[in-house]
Design goal:
Blueprint (H helix, E strand, L loop, with lengths): L1 E5 L10 E6 L9 H7 L17 E4 L4 E6 L8 H18 L3 E5 L7 H10 L17 E5 L4 H22 L7 H15 L2 E6 H7 L2 H7 L7 E7 L7 E6 L1 E5 L19 H16 L4 E11 L10 E4 L5 E4 L6 H14 L4 E6 L4 H6 L4 E5 L2 H13 L4 E3 L17 E2 L8 H10 L7 E6 L5 E2 L9 E2 L4 H11 L1
Helix pairs in contact: 2-3, 3-4, 4-8, 5-8, 6-7, 7-9, 8-13, 9-12, 11-13
Length: about 475
């Protein structure tokens, strides 16, 4: 998509469609710039357009004029700025128009127009042979954006959509080995150091938690680590992504209904690897380590059984009461490895629990952590770029949830309740006390069951923008 900036009036621009976002408050008293486009003082929108959020109204004059509802002015923030642009894009795409102009007068950050449109263009029909979604060829933005901001936004969109495409791929295409190959490409391109441990090597290193889950699959499994080094003495940020390329639940097998969606159980790993590509582009003034345990969770003859005990890389023993709570088990070794590689501030991203969907739906990611200042920094980083994050507590009493009679910790509580918190309590067992850690449960936000006005059904690429914004804060 070619991007051009202009300071012309919208009605002076040569485009197939002119996009004009409007607040609800403006529909009764039209802005002067809109009057200029229409060539008339008044327009009775009647019941056709009220400015309500994500509402659209196409006026079929030449060039066409698309009004897009931006909701109430007092509510307009980064998330809505991006989504309003995405709403316009999806309407235009369906109309198969190619050259558009977007009035950025109400935007505090016009680059979000580029971001919203780029994310909205993502087509989940990657294996359809006939139906292909139209693309926008030319975007003219009436607003000011620096060249560096345009490039950074385009990179962000490209990488986020790459993560979405990886999550969307079926499990017979994106295997643990395929994920490793993607990481190797990054390592070659950006001169990252890379460590890849197969199951035998992981077992020798003491990663019994990861190996225990991996042993049920015939696919080769790997523990992967990528590292960007700025300076040896610099702060090291660790990002650990859950990489279960297909999750059947293992011996504790899931119901067959919607099991096909469990190809998305590696969304955390896809986000982590995608983030590393941006690290290579941005070259921050901190060190970054990305670790992803990559395996399937299947009920093969060698699979773990409920009640089995495994030992993690830090020496702690885990009683696996339910093999469908496998993500936290493989993350245990991933978290320990990230710290052994120098990370002192660690974020893990995982499609960890169904409980988070019950609690928050698809509207927010749950966040839990061990240090209030770092937790706040991650939450603020998400809010500033329009990725909602909601914090939940970890009280001392919650540790009792995972008491085991035979091992140091159980992987699930003996009874229902506090499912999201229990997952975080487990993971905290593998964090050194002096290190800062945040757990992001993205099970509800990594995948949309239904199309949004501004985004296609399927993977969202959640977390990439939050991590990049946090990187800016830490650098």
């Amino acid at each position: 998509m070619k991007i051009t900036l202009s300071d012309e009036l919208l009605n002076k621009i040569s485009a197939e469609v002119l996009i004009f976002p409007m607040f609800e408050e403006e529909t009764k008293n039209l802005p002067e710039s809109l009057k200029g486009i229409l060539g008339r003082e008044q327009l009775d929108l009647g019941n056709d357009f009220s400015g309500k959020l994500y509402e659209t109204f196409l006026i079929p004059q030449l060039p066409k004029l698309l009004l897009v509802g931006a909701g109430k002015k007092s509510d307009f923030n980064a998330r809505l700025e991006r989504n309003v642009a995405g709403t316009a894009a999806r309407k235009i795409i369906k109309s198969k128009l190619k050259k558009i102009a977007f009035d950025a007068r109400i935007y505090t950050k016009p680059s979000l127009i580029i971001e919203g449109i780029g994310l909205a263009e993502f087509d989940p029909g990657i294996y359809k042979t006939k139906e292909k979604t139209s693309k926008i060829d030319d975007l003219i933005v009436l607003g000011k954006i620096s060249a560096s901001e345009i490039k950074k936004t385009q990179n962000l969109v490209e990488v986020t959509n790459w993560a979405r495409s990886i999550v969307l791929e079926p499990a017979n295409k994106i295997t643990p080995k395929a994920m490793v190959e993607e990481a190797k490409k990054l390592a070659r391109t950006y001169k990252f150091s890379i460590e890849v441990y197969d199951e035998k090597e992981a077992a020798k290193k003491g990663m019994g938690a990861f190996v225990g889950i991996a042993q049920g699959s015939h696919q080769p499994s790997y523990m992967l680590a990528l590292k960007y080094i700025y300076k040896k003495e610099a702060l090291t940020l660790g990002v650990v992504g859950k990489g279960i390329t297909f999750d059947s639940g293992g011996i504790s097998i899931k119901p067959s209904d919607r099991m096909h969606e469990m190809k998305m159980d590696m969304a955390g790993a896809a986000t982590a690897i995608a983030f590393m590509k941006l690290v290579g582009e941005l070259k921050p003034k901190i060190n970054v380590v990305v670790v992803t345990p990559l395996t399937e969770n299947l009920p093969g003859g060698g699979a773990l059984k409920p009640g089995d005990v495994v030992k993690a890389l830090n020496g702690k023993t885990i009683e696996v009461l339910n093999t469908d709570a496998e993500g936290r088990v493989v993350l245990a070794d991933g978290l320990v490895l990230s710290q052994k590689l120098g990370a002192t501030k660690i974020i893990d991203l995982a499609t960890l629990t169904g409980a988070v969907i019950v609690a928050l739906g698809s509207e927010a990611t749950a966040a839990l952590g061990n240090k209030e200042d770092f937790l706040e920094s991650v939450v603020d980083s998400g809010e500033e770029v329009g990725e909602r994050i909601w914090t939940l507590p970890i009280y001392p009493e919650h540790k009792e949830l995972l008491r085991s009679d035979v091992a140091d910790v159980a992987n699930i509580p003996p009874s229902r309740g506090a499912g999201v918190i229990a997952g975080a309590v487990f993971l905290q067992e593998f964090i050194e006390k002096n290190n800062s850690w945040v757990h992001l449960d993205i099970a509800g936000t990594a995948w949309l069951d239904n199309e949004k006005p501004y985004l296609a059904k399927g993977p969202t690429g959640i977390g990439v923008r939050t991590l990049v914004n946090l990187l800016d804060k830490l650098s």
